[in-house]
Structure formats: C-alpha cells, structure tokens
C-alpha cells in the first residue's frame, strides 16, 4: 500500500565505464573541472574551490548546424537505401541494446524507488566553500543511511560517484577544445561513453502511516456493521418495530410535516400580500381587481416553486441513527482503543449530523 | 581519418560522423532529462485536476459525478474537441494540438448537469492544459526515437568505413 512520491530532481546519473574512468583519470584536475569529475579522480572527499558556477557552460544546448544535417542526410543515403524496411529492424535492434536509451522506454512503466537525495549533489560549488558544512555532511548521510537501511542494495549504489549531464557537456566542450588545439588521439565522446550505465532517478517511496491504516480498518468495520444491522433489521424480533412504532418517532414525523406545510402556506400568503398591497405601496393607487390579480399571480408563482421543495421534504423519511453499539466484530478492534470507548461518540456525531441536514 | 573518401567523394569522413554522433548522444541525454521534466508536469497537473474533480464529486454527490454519467456505446456519436496533427520541421516530426472546429463536439461538463460546480470547470481547464504537456512529452519521445535511429545508423556507417 505504499505510495510513490514524485520525482525530486530530474538529473540523469551516469555511472562511468572503466574506459571512461581511465580517460578521466588522465585529465589534469584544476578548478575548472566540474566537481563530479574531480571527485571521480581524487576521491569522494575532494572539494573544489571554484567560485563561479558551471551554469553558463552547462546551459549551452547542442544544436545541429546545417552541415551536420547535411552530413546526416548523406550518411542516411549511404547506409540505408531502403529506408522503411530497415527502420523497423534498426528500432528493434536498438531497443534490445542494453544502453541508456532502453532505460527511457521502460521508465514510464516502472519507476522503482529509492531515497532521492544523495551526498554527491551534482554541481554545488557554493556549498563547498565553508568547511563546517563539509564536516557536517557525512554524519548527516550516515544517519539517513541508518534510517533507510531496509532500502536494500540500491543504497550502496547511491553512494557511488556518478556524473550528470552537465559534466558530460563539459567533457564534450573539453574534448572539442583539445581537438582544436591539435592534440593527437583525442577520443570521441561516444566511444568514451560506450558501456556507461545511465540511470534514471527514482521515485521516493512513501510509507503509509500505520495510524491511518488502523483508522481505515476501524471505519470500514463500522460501516460494514451498520450495513449488516440494516440488512438484518427485518428478521430481528427485538429491533423489528423499534423506531417506527415508538410515540416519539411518530410525533417527530408529524412535527416535521406540519412545519413543512406551515412554511409552504406562509410563503404563499406572503407572496399574495406582496402582490396585493406591496405593489400598490410602490406604484400608487391601483384598481382593486387588478391588485387581486397581481396577488394571485405572485402567490401562484411562489406556490409552484414551493411545491417542489414541499414534495422533496415530505418524501424523505426520518431516519433515527441507531444508538446501540456500532463497530466491527471484535477481531477488527485493536488492543489500544477498545470498542466501548469510541462508540457513543460516533453515534452522537450521527445525531448532530442529522440536525444539520 | 580520410578512409571515407573511398566510397564517395562527397561522403563525410569518420571524424565528421564521430562528431555528429557525439552531438546526438549528448542531445539524447538532454532529451531524456527533458522528458522526465515533462512527465513531472503531467503528473502534477493530473493530480491537481483529479483533486478538483474529487471536490466537485463531494459537492454534487457520488452518483452525480461518476462513470455512470459518461456516454456509453449506444449514445450519440460526437467528434473530439481537440485533435493532433503531425507537422515536419527541419526533418523532425512534431505533433501539434489544434482545436477541432467540427460541429458536433460536446462539452463534457454537460454530462454532469447544467449547473456544475466551479471546481468542475477548473478541473476541465487543467485537464485541457495537460494535453499540451502530453503532446510536448510525445514530441520529446519522438525525437528520442529518431535520435536512436541516427545513433544506430552512424555506428553502422563508422563501422563500415573503418
């Protein structure tokens, strides 16, 4: 009965393959390197001293320029002459490939869940600036870890270092620059990324509150008991004639209907008076016959509307809530609250509600 | 690096193909994140709409707002009030929402009565908005799939040239 919380951060987690790791380890680590990459090289405790944000680099979107599209089309023409037939095969092929894309396809169906936050928050240089928070963070993680110990092996994976998309962006730009400088044997990003594991962040699982659960069970049991009593009323000699035959029930019924009829009459009379006298007071002297006609007309209109409500009111039955014990069979009642404690309260509530209606 | 010229003078070199592949892979990653954001949008708006629907159900009573009020197979036909259409931009297929101006559209609110609570109107608006999010999501998905195709194609190309 657990619920799934919604996603908190939408960053992909890229767990680098060994070849990528090897390459990254060769990079010169300076303050321009994103925190995650630096951490992969120098270990988890590495803190960068970067002042400026990565954002302006990270936000550069990759766009195809016209030559790219041209090249793409050329390649398309070369590799696939028969576009349609191969397309299907291609698609199936890639769908089976154990790569990042397959994860997206599955993602909508099942989002397994783990705690969202992890200590290796992508790019937060501000946080690293003062050392006190740095000291504080590991202990916080520890406590969190303890509280979520049942979260299986996934917890361990959480602890691993990963890259985010902005890091890959940076790597791409870095490789581009290297190539421009004319460095030999610069690997391509796609070969580097090959074999890397791309994971989708997972939803948080929200445990159902046990108090709520207990309450639901109790209420359901009460509801069922009420239905059962209603159902068995006609076969139980004791209750068979109970509310309907008592004088108080009859009197109450009578009262209700009399009041309803009284209200009906009063409003019609008031309507007639308005037509008969009120209009004259407003406009000035009127003929007696005309006044009478006006009064009758007003009364008629009001009577029409009132009849609807009268019919509704007379139609409904007076239901007296049962004052006897409600509540489920003893097996539903839990030890802490025993049945007799809360029942009177429940039935009183029902009576209150009756009057409000 | 210039092995590609063997096939065709015009054919792009391996380096170009590789760079292209880099770009597509990078774009793919961004698209995946974007898709997740879209899905979050959809989730939150559906949640909001459902809450409004539940409120109106509370106001009007359970039987007044229920599946029993929805049209069945035997009821009269009507056309969809919103339809989608596929357009092609820069070789990328995209889906666009357009309002259907056919005559026999119906307002779904009428199924639940003439004077429906304000919450119902709000729910309707929110759900109508959700269509836009969904279409956005579908567009991203389409792009993801085409990119997948391109990645496979480029791989094949690079392998064949090598």
TrEMBL record, chain A:
The places in or outside the cell where this protein is found are:
Endoplasmic reticulum membrane
Do you know which Pfam families this protein is assigned to? Answer: Vma12 (PF11712)
Per the record, what is one GO cellular component?
Answer: endoplasmic reticulum membrane
Q: Does the keyword Endoplasmic reticulum apply?
A: yes
Q: Which UniProt keywords apply?
A: Endoplasmic reticulum, Membrane, Transmembrane, Transmembrane helix
Q: List the GO biological process terms.
A: vacuolar proton-transporting V-type ATPase complex assembly
Query: What main location does UniProt list?
Result: endoplasmic reticulum
Residues crossing the lipid bilayer are 258-276, 288-311
Region annotation (Disordered) ranges? 86-159
Per UniProt, the ranges with Basic and acidic residues bias are 94-130, 137-151
> Cross-referenced InterPro entries, in alphabetical order?
ATPase_Vma12
Report membrane topology: Multi-pass membrane protein
Q: Which domain of life is it from?
A: Eukaryota
* Protein name per the record: Uncharacterized protein LOC113496321
TrEMBL record, chain B:
| GO BP annotations, alphabetical order | vacuolar proton-transporting V-type ATPase complex assembly
MF terms from GO for this chain are: unfolded protein binding
Q: Which PANTHER family match?
A: COILED-COIL DOMAIN-CONTAINING PROTEIN 115
**Any idea what this protein is called?**
Vacuolar ATPase assembly protein VMA22
Q: Name the encoding gene, please.
A: LOC113499338
């Amino acid at each position: 009965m657990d619920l799934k919380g919604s996603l908190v951060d939408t960053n992909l987690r890229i767990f680098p393959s060994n070849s990528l790791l090897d390459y990254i380890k060769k990079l010169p680590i300076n303050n321009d390197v994103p925190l995650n990459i630096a951490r992969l090289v120098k270990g988890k405790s590495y803190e960068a001293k970067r002042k400026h944000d990565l954002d302006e680099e990270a936000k550069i979107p990759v766009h195809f320029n016209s030559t790219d599209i041209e090249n793409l089309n050329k390649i398309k023409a070369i590799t696939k002459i028969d576009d349609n037939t191969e397309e299907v095969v291609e698609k199936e092929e890639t769908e089976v490939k154990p790569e990042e894309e397959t994860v997206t396809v599955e993602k909508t169906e099942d989002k397994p869940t783990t705690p969202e936050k992890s200590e290796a928050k992508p790019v937060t240089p501000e946080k690293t600036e003062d050392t006190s928070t740095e000291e504080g963070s590991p202990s916080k993680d520890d406590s969190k870890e303890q509280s979520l110990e049942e979260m299986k092996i996934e917890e361990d994976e959480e602890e691993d270092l990963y890259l985010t998309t902005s890091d890959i962006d940076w790597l791409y730009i870095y490789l581009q620059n290297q190539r421009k400088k004319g460095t030999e044997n610069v690997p391509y990003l796609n070969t580097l990324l090959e074999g890397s594991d791309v994971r989708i962040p997972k939803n948080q699982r929200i445990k159902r509150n046990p108090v709520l659960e207990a309450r639901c069970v109790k209420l359901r049991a009460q509801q069922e008991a009420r239905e059962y009593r209603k159902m068995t009323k006609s076969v139980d000699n004791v209750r068979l004639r109970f509310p309907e035959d008592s004088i108080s029930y009859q009197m109450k019924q009578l009262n209700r209907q009399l009041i309803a009829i009284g209200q009906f009459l009063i409003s019609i009379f008031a309507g007639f008076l308005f037509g008969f006298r009120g209009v004259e007071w407003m406009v000035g002297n009127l003929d007696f016959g005309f006044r009478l006609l006006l009064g009758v007309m007003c009364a008629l209109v009001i009577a029409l509307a009132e009849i609807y409500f009268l019919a509704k009111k007379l139609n409904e039955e007076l239901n007296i809530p049962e004052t006897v014990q409600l509540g489920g069979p003893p097996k539903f009642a839990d030890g802490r609250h025993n049945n007799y404690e809360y029942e009177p309260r429940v039935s009183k509530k029902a009576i209150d509600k009756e009057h409000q209606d | 690096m210039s092995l590609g010229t063997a096939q065709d003078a015009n054919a792009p070199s391996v380096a170009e193909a590789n760079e292209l592949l880099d770009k597509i892979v990078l774009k793919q990653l961004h698209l995946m994140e974007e898709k997740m954001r879209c899905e979050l949008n959809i989730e939150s708006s559906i949640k909001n709409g459902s809450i409004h629907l539940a409120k109106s159900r509370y106001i009007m009573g359970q039987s007044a707002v229920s599946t029993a009020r929805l049209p069945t197979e035997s009821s009269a036909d009507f056309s969809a009030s919103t339809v989608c259409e596929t357009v092609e931009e820069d070789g990328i297929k995209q889906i666009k929402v357009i309002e259907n101006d056919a005559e026999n559209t119906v307002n779904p609110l009428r199924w639940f009565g003439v004077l429906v609570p304000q919450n119902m109107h709000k729910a309707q608006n929110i759900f109508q908005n959700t269509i836009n999010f969904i279409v956005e999501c579908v567009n991203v998905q389409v792009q993801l799939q085409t990119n997948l195709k391109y990645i496979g194609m480029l791989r094949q190309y690079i392998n064949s040239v090598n």
